[in-house]
Amino acid sequence: xxxxxxxxxFPVLGEGAPGSxxxxxxxxxxxxxxxxxxxxxxxxxxxxxxRIDRRSGRADVNGDGLRRDVAEDAADLADRAQLAxxxxxxxxxxxxxxxxxxxxxxxxxxxxxxxxxxWRLLTLxxxxxxxxxxxxxxxxxxxxxxxxxxxAVDATVRRIFARPYRRQTPGxxxxxxxxxxxxGATLRRSxxxxxxxxxxxxxxxxxEREAPGALAxxxxxxxxxxxxxxxxxxxxxxxxxxxxxxxxxDDGRRASRAALLALEAALGPLGDDDVTALAVPRPPRxxxxxxxxxxxxxxxxxxxxxxxxxxxxxxxxxxxxxRPWGIDLAPGPLGxxxxxxxxxxxxxPRGGAARERxxxxxxxxxxxxxxxxxxxxxxxxxxxxxxxxxxxxxxGGVSDAHARASLAFRDAALTLGxxxxxxxxxxxxxxxxxxxxxxxxxxxxxxxxAYAARVRLRREDDARWARFEVPRTLGDxxxxxx
Length: 482
What we know:
Radius of gyration: 25 Å
Helix content: 40-55%
Order of helices and strands: HEEEEHEEEHEEHHHHHHHHHHHE
Strand content: 5-15%
Number of helices: 14
Strand order of the largest sheet: 4-3-2-1-5-6
């Protein structure tokens, strides 16, 4: 890591020559509270540490043993090191030519407890999609916040570590802590599963049937011809369609949990890999056919050792309005350019076919465990697995419709972005994805707000946390799921 920073142009001192002036430590994240907006600096031999606000670069808690400007410069060094390495760091520094220089650096694993209440990494399609654009967070909060009792004052979904975290109530049941029940209790628990998951399956199939028509009516609208107010209204309508899909995906998460908790009642705790394999959405037939084409072409090119340009051109046409599944609005169609087609081919061995194989293997392991538990459990487990597969298929249909709705919303957001670029408010059209919907509306109406600066800070957050392995749960550690 030290060599990597030296190659990136950071001032670096030799381990044996730490300089003649003040020296100390700097943590790019509060190592005790885990606050992502705080940088902690401590002078060697000093008592109290300095606490620097990341956004302003200024001290908000004064420490001992260092001048303010030295503490703030050391904090800047730690922050830039985290950006360069893509993960939190702890570094030792020493003053050299009146500026802090790096002596040593190591990865930092903070203990995140800096939020009020309890927050859990949002999992609707994939366990962790990575950084998620703020407009996606805005849409998630509008969708899931609609179910909050009373007036929604606080955010339901927050962007922490540039990921979506959802506010949770303590004591919610979670997988991984289930215990095997008696045969009678297992039968009673499994009998409740079908009524619990049926409403979601019915609603998901209805959405899958009706969404294409609603989206087709939106997609024929010429966005460039709309007035600013009509364009904003169109963007909000497309956001509503995305939010409707997100609500259904949240229902699908609950339905999967109901089925898998029943499975744990029959078998005991499931492994994390089996939970993921059984809960992941199952693509509809058209998507599975496309996944098979990608995997087949990947195998053929791997065997020949060269790209098949003609086959890639045909595939690009099929991918013209297809995007990866997920809750983030940032990804565009896979067929946008040759580079995206190449990435889709590269990812294909880990795609739909691989997930289906993992699901089948998890099902076989569950059935084998049921047989070992004695007479009568296998039939119950097979019935629960069949329901879990139906839930996964319904989630897949919603995920596919959500992907198309996301492209439609993204088109509207980029059109808004183009107008803001023309007005010299934003630097590029994709910056619109880094603003909330109300911020976009304010910017288009001429409200002052330093929007370009907001975007730069949020994109910087993406770079800072891109490769950081985020914790599943934040908040009171006594409430944390194990």
